[in-house]
Design goal:
The chain has eight helices and seven strands. By secondary structure, the chain is an alpha+beta fold. The strands form two sheets. A four-stranded mixed sheet has the order 4-7-6-5. It has a three-stranded antiparallel sheet with strand order 2-1-3. Helix 1 crosses helix 2 and helix 2 packs across helix 3. The longest helix is centred in the middle third of the chain and has 43 residues.
Length: 227
């Protein structure tokens, strides 16, 4: 019989030796009836259940599983992997089937994650190509491109309006609000809570970060650490 943690899926073999460990005993060389008597006296289980534990086999989980896991919980037997004490009893075969399903689930999740990552990478590559064509005086790092990609369409349009101004009419923008201790300029978008951080390099602008005011402290920390 197997016991399986409902929280994390870790499984262990439930046998007479495990129960003896929980009872704080140490036995060796017991015969069949000696084992049965020991379990009967130490656990409070009915005699048929004590016999089933000694014999083992799938019938133990099917017939007595709920009673055993309840006993384990009362005795504070926690999962070695996650520390939970929410067990279920099942046969070896059923446990293997669950393990197989978990592997299939993880494999499917990995495939999905890879597809999403590839899709995002492709989208960011296309974005970079378009920006390099439209905004030749602006330099975008990967972090900015990824942040822009994750924005909704409305906010993307607002940032592109600013990109266009930086490209063609930078003199119309207030570019004197520098972050203390850096040469990074913080540019507020008047019509929203969006922020843009940049550096001027000769005739070009390095776009360092785009964000909203809710994440301002995080962005400032990043900028002061790397710029």
């Amino acid at each position: 019989m197997k016991i399986r943690c409902r929280s994390c899926g870790h499984s262990e073999t439930l046998n007479k030796e495990l129960i003896v460990t929980l009872l704080g005993g140490a036995v060796a060389g017991f015969g069949f009836w000696a084992w049965v008597s020991f379990l009967f006296a130490g656990t409070g289980f009915a005699m048929p259940l004590c016999i089933a534990i000694v014999v083992g086999g799938p019938a133990l989980a099917i017939k007595y599983g709920d009673e055993i896991v309840e006993w384990l919980a009362k005795h504070g037997y926690n999962c070695k992997k996650c520390g939970a004490s929410d067990w279920m009893a099942l046969t070896e075969e059923a446990n293997q089937q669950l393990d197989q399903k978990e592997l299939q689930k993880k494999s499917l999740q990995t495939q999905t994650d890879n597809l999403l990552r590839e899709s995002e990478t492709h989208a960011i590559h296309l974005l970079k190509t378009r920006f390099n064509t439209l905004y030749t005086s602006l330099i975008f790092n990967k972090r900015v491109l990824k942040s822009f990609h994750n924005l909704n369409k409305e906010n993307q349009m607002k940032f592109e309006q600013i990109f266009g101004q930086l490209q063609y009419h930078p003199q119309l923008l207030a570019l004197n609000n520098k972050i203390s201790g850096t040469d990074v300029i913080q540019l507020d978008l008047n019509t929203s809570d969006l922020l843009l951080f940049l550096q001027k390099e000769n005739t070009s602008f390095l776009i360092i970060s785009i964000s909203n005011k809710n994440s301002l402290s995080e962005e400032l920390k990043h900028i002061k650490e790397y710029y």
